[in-house]
Amino acid sequence: MNNQTQDPKLQELKTRLLEVNDLRSASSLLHWDQATYMPSGGAAARGRQMSTLNRLAHEKFTDGAIGQLLEDLRPYEESLSFDSDEASLIRATRRDYEEAVKVPAEFEARFSDHIAAIYQDWTAARPNNDFKAVQPLLEKTLDFSRELADFFPGYEHIADPLINFSDRGMKASTVRALFADLRQQLVPLVEAITAQPKTDESCLHGHWPEAEQFTFGRKIIKAYGYDFERGRQDKTHHPFMTKFSLGDVRITTRAKEDDLAEALFSTLHESGHALYEQGINQDYEGTPLANGTSSGVHESQSRLWENIVGRSRGFWNHWYPLLQQANSNLSNVSQDTFYRAINRVDRSLIRTDADEVTYNLHVMIRFDLELQLLEGELSVRDLPEAWHERYKSDLGLTAPDDRDGVLQDVHWYGGTIGGAFQGYTLGNILSAQFFDTATAAQPKVPQEIEQGQFSTLHEWLQENIYQHGSKYTAPELIERVTGDPLSIEPYLRYLRGKYGELYSL
Ligand code: ZN
User: Fold this and answer.
1) pLDDT tens digits, 31-68
2) How open is the CA angle 351-295-275, to the nearest 5 degrees?
3) Distance 73 CA to ligand 1 centre (A)
4) Per-residue pLDDT averaged across 294-308, rounded?
5) Where are the domains of the chain?
6) Spacing, Cα 141 to ligand 1 middle (Å)
7) Distance (Å, rounded) from C-alpha 315 to C-alpha 307?
8) One-letter-per-residue 3-state SS of 89-151
9) Do β-strands 248-253 and 233-235 pair in parallel, antiparallel, or remain unpaired?
10) Which member of 270, 277, 306, 370 is catalytic?
11) β-sheet bridge partners, residue 249
12) Cα–ligand 1 centroid distance for 276 (angstroms)
C-alpha cells in the first residue's frame, strides 16, 4: 500500500485501525502471559485488564468517525480494482465495522463478564466431573448465543450468524450437507479399519526428556520455515498460536515425557497456524487484512503441516534416522513400526487425541448438538445424556463420566454455542484440497519432503494463500487457488490412499 498515492481519508482510517489493533494486541499479549508465565495470583486482575482493553478496542472500532470515513471512501473504493490492497482494506474494514456496530456495547460487556464467570467455573467443574455446577451458566451461554445471533436478523438458521463469525460465507445448511456427505463415506472407512487388529504404538511411550522433545520439534519447524526472529515457542497447558504483530507470531506447546507424539505433533500443528500469519503481506500490518481469513482456512494450514506433511511416510525417511540418533528408545524400532504408530486409527473419547480418520466424527457430534441446542430441540439439562448417546451410536463408546464427555472441550465454556467446531473439519477437508493443488503445480514437493526440504511447498502456500491475509473470504480464496469450490473429494482420496495402504483395505 503505497503512501504517496493514498487518499488522505484512507490514511486517517489506517491510523485509527492501528490504534484499535494496538489495544487488541496488548490484550493478546496479556492472554499469552496468562497462559504461560503468570503466577496464579494474577488471575483476577488479569481478567479485568484484558476485558478493559477489549472494551476500549471495541469502542474505538465502532466509533461513528470510522463509519463516516468508510462512507466517504466509497467513491475511492469504487475507482479501484477489487484485488487492489486499498479496495480490499476498505472492503474488509467495512464488513467488520458493520458487524461490530450491530452488537451493542452493553451486550458485549454482559457477555464478557459471563464468559469470565463460566470459564472460571468450568476449570473447576471439569476435574470434579461436575456438569451440574456449570449447567445454569451454560444455559445462560445458550441465551447469550441466541441473543447475539438475533442482532443479525434475516438468517436462514439461527446458527448462521455465529458460523459466519469464524467461517465467513458458510451457513448451517451448507455445512450440514457437506458433513452428511463426508460422514457417509467416513463411517465405512472407520469400520473397515477398526475391524483390523489394533496397531502397536508402544514405541511412542518410552521416556522422552522434555528438553529433547522441544529441540527436535524446533528443528523440524525451522526447516518448515517458521521464523524464530519473528516468533518464539513457550510451554503451556493447552497449545495455541498467538500474534502481537506480523513480526511477533508465537506458538506454545505442552510435552508429556511418556508420550512422544504429544509435543511433536502439537508443535507441527501450531507452527502451521504461525506460518500462515508470518506469511501475511507486511504492508497489511495493523489492519483487518493482517489475519488469516477464516477458522477453516487457518486449520487447513495447521493440519497440512501436522498431518499431510508431518505424518507422511516420505517425511520420516528424512527425520526418522535423526529422531533415532536423538533418543536411544527407538534404536531397535523400525521406521515402519514408528510410522504405523503415529498413524494408528482407533475409536476414542477425546477429540484432541483423535486420529485423522475418526477426528471428524467428533466434530460432527458437536456441530449437530450445537444446532439442536440453538433450535430448542435439546435442552442444556439433557446435553450430557445426548452427548453420551451420540458417542455410543457414532463411535460405539461410552464415556465413564462427563469429564471425558460434555466437559472435555473449552469452547462452550469460553464463547458461544454455535460456530465453534465446524472450522476443524472444514480445515481437514481443505488441507487436502490445497495440498493437491500445490503438488499439481509443483510436482517435486513430495520428493523434497522426503529430503527434509520444504521451501517449494512453503513458497507456494506463501504466494497463493498466506500473503493475502483476509483480502479474500474463504470461498473466494478456495475458488481462486484451486479453481473449484470447497470439495471433500481430495480429502477422501487422501484418507483412502493413505489408510488403505496402512490397513491393507
Ligand atoms: Zn488448530
Assistant:
1) 999 989 999 899 889 888 988 999 899 999 999 999 99
2) 100
3) 36
4) 98
5) 3-125, 172-502
6) 23
7) 10
8) HHHHHHHHHHHHHHCCHHHHHHHHHHHHHHHHHHHHHCCCCCHHHHHHHHHHHHHHHHHHHHC
9) parallel
10) 270
11) 243
12) 12
Sign of CA dihedral 396, 402, 403, 407: positive
Tell me how far apart the alpha carbons of residues 361 and 339 are, in angstroms, rounded to a whole number.
23
What pLDDT band is residue 298 in, cutting at 50, 70 and 90?
Answer: very high
**pTM, whole model, 2 decimals?**
0.96
Tallying the residues shown for the chain, one arrives at 505
CA 78 – ligand 1 centroid, Å: 36
Supply angle C-alpha 113, 122, 52, rounded to 5: 25
pLDDT score, position 238 = 87
Largest CA distance in the chain: 70
Residue 331 CA, ligand 1 centroid: distance in Å: 32
Q: Give residue 1's pLDDT band: very low, low, confident or very high (50, 70, 90).
A: low
Ligand 1 centroid to residue 270 C-alpha, Å: 6
Q: Which strands make up the sheet holding 241-245, listed edge to edge? A: 233-235, 248-253, 241-245
End-to-end CA distance of the chain, in Å? 53
Dihedral (Cα; 460, 463, 467, 469), 10-degree rounding? -70
Would you place residue 228 in the very low, low, confident or very high pLDDT band (cuts 50, 70, 90)?
very high
DSSP string, 392-455: HHHHS---SSSTTTTTS-SGGGSS-SSSSSHHHHHHHHHHHHHHHHHHHH-TTHHHHHHTT--H
Q: How far is the CA of 403 from the centre of ligand 1 (A)?
A: 22
Phi then psi for residue 233, to 5 deg, are -125, 135
Choosing among 3.30.700.10, 3.60.10.10, 1.10.1370.30, 1.10.820.10, the CATH entry for 172-502 is 1.10.1370.30
The reply to whether 147 belongs to the active site is no
